[in-house]
Amino acid sequence: MSFEKTKISLIKALKLKNTHVLTLHGPWGTGKTHLWREIKAELEERKEASTTYLSCMTYNSISLLKSATMTALLSQSTGIARYGEKAGKLVVGLLNTKLPKEMQITVGFSDIQPLLPLIKKSIPSPSLVVFDDIERATDLDVGDLLGFVNFLVEELDQQVLLIMNREKLSEKAGERWQQIREKVVSLEIELLASSDEYVAIGLGDINNDHFNLFKEKIELLKIKNIRAIQHMRRVYDAVSAEEIFTPSQWMELIPSIVIFVAIHTNSIPDAAEVKRTIHKGAFFDPDEEQTEEQARAHALVQNYKLGTVDSFETEILLPYLQSGHLNVATAQSYAKHMDMRAKRNGAESTAHENLMKFYWDPNIQKAQLEALITATKPHLDFLSAGTATKLANAANEAGNTKLAQEIIYDWISKNEAAIKSAAENPSYLDERDDFIELHDNIKSVIEFRHTTIHKALSVPEAIHSITSSNTTGSRQLAPFKTTTPSSIEHILRSADHVAFREIFRFFARRLNGRSSDQHFGTASNHFIEACQNIIKLDSEGRLTELIRRLAKASNVASQIGIS
Q1: Is the Cβ–Cβ distance between 81 and 98 less than 8 Å?
Q2: CA distance 501 to 512
Q3: What are φ and ψ of residue 206, in 5° steps?
Q4: Contacts of 91 (CB under 8 A, 6+ apart)
Q5: Containing H/E element for 134?
């Protein structure tokens, strides 16, 4: 394993003679600090060396880093180094405990450097000083740091390990590094790790099925950032702690956790564009011109096969990533939704399989056909109206009308929520193909509820609905079936300026396309008669003037009889 090989190489390098300064380098999130912790534990367990660890990004000046380093060396406690500005005083205090009274000092850290060789015996030996996050310490000059490293080696006989991401050094720091490193650094080691190791380190010990799915999705996104993977594990742990979701439900949730944490931690290329692509459904018009970034994001999302984003992502996962607050009540509700969805999918699958056998299995005996349909009855509360209709039709074909009636009656009695949802949808009856195929009893129940909830539209309301939403369903068509010339005339005379123009233009479009107009023919004739009657009764009136103007503008003047 590559991670283990790097670990072995670094431990061996630390034992080499005259190898005073080493660097461990690699991209962010690849586990450099994690590797160091493992090495530190081994060194201390074998009592091979005393170690002092400092993260450079904690300090905004070389003097503070020097003070913290000396404090930690003398105290063998990196905790003391956190006191920052007080570090110099602490060093002086510690030095005074090691020096005879006549040699004790009261000056700052910069004044005691000439005395440091005198107290080498107070520093554990062998001793290793580790400086981490060098590229993140933007306020530290690389030259000053390497000068201090050289001081630690030459004056205090320390061995030093530098942990860094060389690619992220600033341009100036990178140039300085290249100029000086050959004089100071003895050996450079690159962290090499396999994707298996990244996943194993980041996830740790979890349910085996869950681990394998995490691994599959992480590798699909080519994530090699241990911190991002650890963040996925923390999200998993936070939600798992509530004991809301079953192990099988987790198999649906894990892919979402992987890709949204990857986006949140910016650990995949084009993360922002990937997020936009997911939220708009990952579908692009093939003829639409895309940027290279959009094309890459589109390909990634299509290959990942996340599915449709729903309330788990929008109401549970994303808010938790952004705020750290888990909406437990919403998660519990979603778990129930998942359970119902699984039961529905299972019931639909069983019903579909039985229907396929009923119609197409040549080895099924006639006596068994009825049993196939009867076997689905216990699951009617999880079946759609369409599937219940198909089962009833099959029962009728088997000659058992009683069973067919029982299926429909039981479905209606067990699916109040589905009926209510359909009835509350204003356009449900307009989804003509699905609705027309339903059993007559189911249709009549939904139609009755729908009519009770949604009042009939007037002609102006129907026209506005059709014009604004481009929807032409039975509810919109109904008022046109009862129009008369006088009713249309009344509508035109009573309409305000907005409605009048909308109504006139609506009928004008019908007149201009009458060869393909199957629904408004009679109403369009009544509109012509209404306009002609208005002109006849008041040829010089304001309304007549508007009709003439709009008729000419809409190219229907000749049809209305306007010269």
Answers
A1: no
A2: 16
A3: -135, 175
A4: 67, 70, 71, 74, 109, 112
A5: none
C-alpha distance from residue 439 to each of 341, 410, 415 (Å): 24, 13, 14
Q: How many CB atoms lie under 10 A from the CB of residue 104?
A: 13
Return contacts of 509-513, CB within 8 angstroms, 24+ apart. Answer: 509/554, 511/556, 511/559, 512/554, 512/555, 512/556
Helix (H, G, I), strand (E, B) or coil at 76: coil
Q: Per-residue pLDDT for 430 more than 70?
A: no
pLDDT of residue 514: 57
Q: If pLDDT is split at 50, 70 and 90, which confidence band does 77 have?
A: very low
pLDDT at 67: 83
DSSP assignment letter at 162: E
Sequence-distant (≥ 6) Cβ neighbours of residue 220 within 8 angstroms: 303, 304
Residues 60/28, Cβ–Cβ less than 8 Å: no
Phi and psi of 193, rounded to 5°? -145, 150
Q: Is the peptide bond before 460 cis (omega within 30 degrees of 0)?
A: no
8 Å CB contact between 415 and 381: yes
The pair phi, psi for residue 47, each rounded to 5°, is 55, 40
Tokens of 108: 């700052």
Nearest to 221 by CA among 191, 190, 262: 262
Any idea what DSSP says for residue 266?
T
H or E segment to which residue 163 belongs: strand 159-164
Q: Which residue has the higher pLDDT, 364 or 417?
A: 417
pLDDT, tens digit, 9 for 90 and up, residues 279-312 = 876 455 555 678 889 889 989 998 998 888 889 9
Q: Write out the two tokens for 209.
A: 């099925």
Q: What is the mean pLDDT of the chain?
A: 85
Cα 456 from Cα 445, distance rounded (Å): 17
How confident is the model over 162-193, as pLDDT tens digits? 998 888 777 777 777 787 777 888 888 888 77
- Give percent of the chain with pLDDT exceeding 70: 88
Q: DSSP code of 168?
A: G
- Distance in angstroms (rounded) separating the CA atoms of residues 219 and 233: 15
Q: Around Cβ 295, how many Cβ atoms within 10 Å? A: 14
85: DSSP letter: G
Q: Could you check whether the bond before residue 27 is cis, i.e. omega within 30 degrees of 0? A: no
Q: Which amino acid is at 203?
A: L
- State how far the Cα of 50 lies from the Cα of 488, in Å rounded to an integer: 97
Say what the pTM is. 0.65
68: nearest Cα among 81, 86, 78: 81
